[in-house]
């Protein structure tokens, strides 16, 4: 495929992330981190205007707020959404968040707590935060800026912070019907857990990436979606929206080395 | 009625082994002047209950934490709380109750409502239940029969909060955009002590300002006048967090004797010296509110 438009991998991933929210209608879209937030904002400004978003603090806005120092820009608030109301929203299920966990396993379980043995971890991270409640109550998508076996682990994640599809983790009577993992956006591909028996599946490969490379960098077996193709490239219109949403180019620091969207031939 | 006291009086009311809740959220509106007073005191073996920020790291570094009940510990702009991390990775925090953020507020709410527990789906099918064997489940007595976690009440001996404005009677105002869960901490506690940027004789407000009051004064046992008492955390709408200080604090964790040096410089000399060493009140008053 040829294109006249220059774009970075980060911009490709923002567009891929925005697709997570397509068709969601009216719910709270929470993109945590630069690329997920720009993805949610792009979704709202293009294909999914019904989404609700916040100023990342306590107020709802109908116009997504550009990232970083605001200059003359004044947010226009449409409502109120402090943490307490976010919990009410989470437990009511009207939210789709995209978060970046430290580990993800073959069952879609996620870890944000610690790596290594729990009592004396090799690396203590944030703690489970809202993952247990978010993951069981509403739609979640995942963002992985550096696709590797360190993130996509071979066995189970070290501390299951967010629920997944491992049957042994669910006891009789526990409700697994309200959870959904929509997509996983990485620097190599877009995946989901919609294969047979919830197997991890590659839906699209970023330009220049092979399925073999993705499999090589993933600790568990992947399958290719029947219609697996290339991740959609950003359009000029989408790039213009992204530039407006990110006037300080914070997206340039989101992926190591800020590589171009189409890999140079090896 | 006059509930004014100083931070030393508050800490004088604390006992070894108490369960203490800290209001605020991460690096936001933490009762840091009182925390520094705790650091200067011999109080120990505390069960710390918090949406954790630097108070968790500092109390860990000072060896005062017996048990930590938390959903996270972070400085936000510096994602990993340096001394929490150090304590965890050294295996020093033996008693941990790591909870989903929502379960945590549910536990405070149960305590405030004098209920033994509140049911929740959050935490099911995660390691939160495996690692906290004291958490029990309950089956819905209705036809659905769903199995839920019975989140136990998180009863506090003491809650410590920092607010923008208080009066001598214990009326309080939180003027920042988000009240966090301070009201639930106040309700969950036997005693609640509040430090405040400004303490007035008696609040006499218009209706719009009165809505900044998030809990009743009968919950408040004491009021401490502590200007810049949340520093280095933010106190919206008065001042933002201090990244310069956070960086200094954070890098001290990587230095040999770093904690003792931090204590010597910022904690031991008292609040007046603390403010001076952070650039004085003129600088503190103009710390910009963070933009997200």
Automatic annotation (TrEMBL), chain A:
Sorted alphabetically, which InterPro entries does this protein's record hold? NagB/RpiA_transferase-like
Keywords in UniProt for this one? Transferase
Gene Ontology molecular-function annotations: transferase activity
Q: What name does UniProt use for this protein?
A: Ketoacid CoA transferase
From TrEMBL, chain B:
* Identification of the protein by name: Acyl CoA--acetate/3-ketoacid CoA transferase subunit alpha
One example GO MF annotation: transferase activity
Record keywords, A-Z: Transferase
**Highest taxon of source:** Bacteria
Q: Does the keyword NAD apply?
A: no
One Pfam family it belongs to: CoA_trans
